[in-house]
Amino acid sequence: MKFTNKYINILILFCFLFSYSLIAQENTPTLVLGEKTITMDGFFTITTVVKTNPDQPFPECKFPELIEFNKRGYSKSIARSVVNGQPTVTYNITQNYQPKKEGTLKIKPFKVLVNGTEIKNEGVVVIVNKAVASPNPETENEESLVSVAEGNQKDLVNVKENAFLAISTNKLAPYVGENFTLTLAFYVAENNTAALEFDHNEIQIPEIIKKIKPESCWEESFGLTETQTSTVKLNGRTYTQYKFYQATFYPLNNKKISIPSANLRLLKDFDEKESKKRNYVTFSSKAFTIQPRDLPPHPLKQQVSVGNFSLKENVSNSKAQTGQSIDYQIQIIGDGNISVIRLPEVKNDSTFDFFQPDINSIVSPQGSKIIGTKSFTFHIIPKQAGNFAMSKYFNWVFFNPTTAQYDTLKPKVIIHTKGRTISTVDTPNAENSTIYDGLENISTPEGTSNLVRLLKNEANIIIIIMLAGLIYLFLPGKRTRQ
């Protein structure tokens, strides 16, 4: 009996570990490497993909230092989806690396730290070719920076200091619901001779961010978890920009938003009679206000999204038989608050049956904005033959801040159907029909199964059975007497 119980315990332990490993695999971060052949002005990228549930915070990632590359820029995208009522979130965090030289560069095995977990990679070889020449790039970059300066960013263009702290925004008077972006960064001129060193930024920066975050706003963070370094040109001078924080906000009302002055303490070396002495020096940013504007009068004023949007459509089959399932997808793309976009409810009629849509959204930083896509995938069953425009069933009203007018996105897809009329309870004038009419014509393709989830569930069932058996064996009076 001891022999039997021993192996039962081993089997239970194995099943438990197997089930646990399946659960862990579902949420294990993965690494995706970028192109292996790039130019000197291009980037090699390392992307961390993290799938989790919406209740989990944004993942913290620490990317490695690569000997032959410099870190240049950091970006993220968030994909939210709801399938069969189950919400999931996928984070893509990308670190850009700029090569230091041309040639064949070997990247040794490295690790990326994600929420305290090490994700290993065996390394890769990257081929770096000569950069493609561009006409007078310095002038081109400076002009583009000046041309896109908005809000209080114009103050940066005219700056004269060798080093300064700045909180900048691209808009000082957005509409209620319109995006504006805040950036916290420290700038050091190329010809600056003073030796400056950051001091406990891990304490100072979170305090500053907490202080400057506006209230009564929806936030979409750019996801900077470490200082992002880049080179910018201001007023004809080259500066190194140390970007600490960047986020896009959407004001929920017309209440004035006050961004206070912030202080950042650094260490500075001073020369005193040929001996160096370190002391603290404090840099302060300028305070400013943002005044949101009310939207013009409209019946849907309190419901519409604000931004520049476009509509894209996809249909699985624009020429279908009645009773045959069709997947029809609407994508709304733009710089507004993607998270709050809703489509008007569509009802079944004598022409189509509409099922609840699968909803998916993706947001990612592009320049000083958050650009997003929200898609709605409807499963539709046509019940009559004919040519039917989807614009009869779908339209979406929004406010365009560029034109200062309300606008409507309407579908252009027309679905062509053939076959006999299918009568259902949504066909009010059907004669001699039942709810079962057309049932044989409805397509019911077999859904794809999630093998990992299936194995995990089976393993859990086995564990429960084995635990019940173990409890039974050890009940008083059930043990075999030795």
Structure, explained:
- The protein has 482 residues and is an alpha+beta fold.
- The chain is 16% helix and 43% strand.
- It is globular.
- Helix 1 packs antiparallel against helix 5.
- The protein is built from 5 helices and 31 strands.
- The longest helix is centred in the N-terminal third of the chain and has 25 residues.
- Strands 1, 3, 5, 6, 22, 24, 25, 26 and 27 form a 9-stranded antiparallel β-sheet that branches. Strands 11, 12, 14, 15 and 16 form a 5-stranded antiparallel β-sheet that branches. Strands 2-10-7 form a 3-stranded mixed β-sheet, with no helix packed on it.
- The chain has 3 domains: 68 residues; 258 residues, no CATH class; 137 residues, Immunoglobulin-like (Sandwich).
Spell out the key features of this protein:
482 residues; 5-stranded antiparallel beta sheet; alpha+beta; 3 domains; globular; 9-stranded antiparallel beta sheet; 5 helices
Describe, in short, the structure shown:
The chain has helices at 2-26, 137-148, 154-157, 201-212, 451-473; strands spanning 30-33, 37-39, 44-52, 61-62, 69-83, 86-99, 103-107, 110-114, 117-121, 124-129, 163-169, 180-189, 196-198, 217-221, 228-234, 237-251, 257-259, 263-272, 275-284, 288-290, 305-306, 309-315, 319-321, 326-334, 352-354, 358-366, 369-382, 386-389, 396-400, 405-409, 414-418. The protein has 482 residues and is α+β, with helices and mostly antiparallel strands.
